[in-house]
Amino acid sequence: MTDTLTRDIETGSDPSHPVRVFLRRCRAWVERHPRVRWTYRFVVGLLGTVIVGVGVLLIPLPGPGWLIVFFGIGILGTEFPSARRMAAFLKRVLSRVLAWWRARRTASDQTNSQGAQ
């Protein structure tokens, strides 16, 4: 499963991917029009903040509260460098926690299989 996920991430990160080419063209158009750029930044900021706020409200409830918060930070990171840095930091922390969890789980499974014999 990890290999498939890694392969999908690499495919989606490819700069020649048609969706990325289309988004770069749209972004270049926005950059050429100052009023559109200001409106775009405002809408991205508002949308990202609302999504983060909804995610924070959903954290204590069962469901994807944290996932929604991270999604909102990702949206903000498309336009604001500080949010991009925060998203990169959270990605590093989450990957370390996931690796720790997998190692702990593997060690626990090995201990349980040895104790059952």
TrEMBL record:
This is TIGR02611 family protein. It comes from the Bacteria. Pfam families: PGPGW.
